[in-house]
Design brief:
There is one protein chain. The chain contains eleven helices and no strands. It is an all-alpha fold. It has one domain. The radius of gyration is 26 Å and the shape is elongated. 33% of the residues are buried.
């Protein structure tokens, strides 16, 4: 009772609370990194694949006919370029490719989901994200009196950013899957029009394989922070070693949250997506 009261009075209770929040959120994150949208939520995937996708597919078939005609008339009315048999064959091949992608889109996307999940599992990552402070010494008590609430807020905000980034990815994948038949028909529209389909494919691939970059960031970032030499404290200075551990935990959390939050832009810059 007296120890609990001491923790509360010195704000050190926020360390235990912050560690609990951080550990719970990271446990939720690591539990879904290796999942596909089908296994993440069967109800959501059933709604997308069984209800939304057939509706958008029927609309996409109409779009395919329209975009093919648009591409045909654009090329035939271009007085600077003769409308040759090669151009007609190119439009026909693109229309056929768009039709194949639309009809087999679910199977293709499921295969990409499984490939991304397999790569994420192979990348490994870190299973222990605990930010334990260790024994509460004079440094921990002093740090808690001054920055205990700040430490808790860092745990909450950084953990929440990682949590929302990972779980938000699944929501975006569901929407991208449902919208695929609406974007792919533009592939048959020829130059200029086909940019819509190319943009969708890049966005889908980037979001699908973003999980691999997230796992790598989490694994490398955690090991990097644990490998930093923060120095050893001997004698009286060792009494304040807990404050150093608190700062190390905060640096680790901020680095991991920033890395995961920027995983999408990192994919786009590096791979041109």
């Amino acid at each position: 009772m007296s120890e609990a009261l001491l923790l509360f009075l010195t704000n050190a209770v926020f360390f235990s609370l912050g560690d609990s929040v951080w550990g719970w959120m990271m446990g939720m994150v690591m539990g879904v990194l290796g999942l596909t949208p089908e296994t993440f939520s069967g109800g959501a995937w059933g709604y997308v694949s069984g209800t939304l996708y057939p509706v958008t597919l029927s609309v996409g078939v109409l779009f395919l006919n329209i975009t093919f005609l648009v591409g045909f008339f654009r090329q035939s009315s271009n007085i600077k370029q003769n409308f040759t048999l090669e151009i007609l064959m190119e439009l026909a091949i693109k229309a056929l490719l768009a039709n194949v992608l639309m009809q087999g889109g679910l199977g293709i996307m499921q295969g990409l989901f499984r490939a991304a999940a397999g790569l994420a599992d192979a990348a490994g990552g870190v299973k222990d994200f605990s930010a334990a402070v260790g024994d509460i010494d004079a440094g921990t008590t002093l740090f808690g009196c001054l920055f205990g609430i700040i430490y808790f807020m860092v745990c909450l905000v950084c953990g929440g950013m990682i949590f929302l980034s990972v779980y938000g990815r699944f929501l975006q994948l569901y929407v991208l899957t449902a919208c695929a038949p609406l974007a792919l028909p533009f592939l048959a529209g020829g130059q200029g029009v086909e940019r819509t389909a190319a943009s969708f494919i890049r966005a889908f691939l980037g979001k699908c394989f973003e999980v691999v970059v997230i796992v790598i960031f989490l694994g490398v970032g955690t090991r990097l922070c644990r490998g930093i030499d923060w120095g050893d404290m001997d004698g009286v200075a060792g009494w304040f070693d807990g404050a150093g551990k608190c700062m190390q935990n905060m640096v680790t959390m901020v680095l991991m949250a920033a890395s995961v939050k920027g995983a999408d832009s990192f994919m786009r810059r590096v791979f041109g997506l």
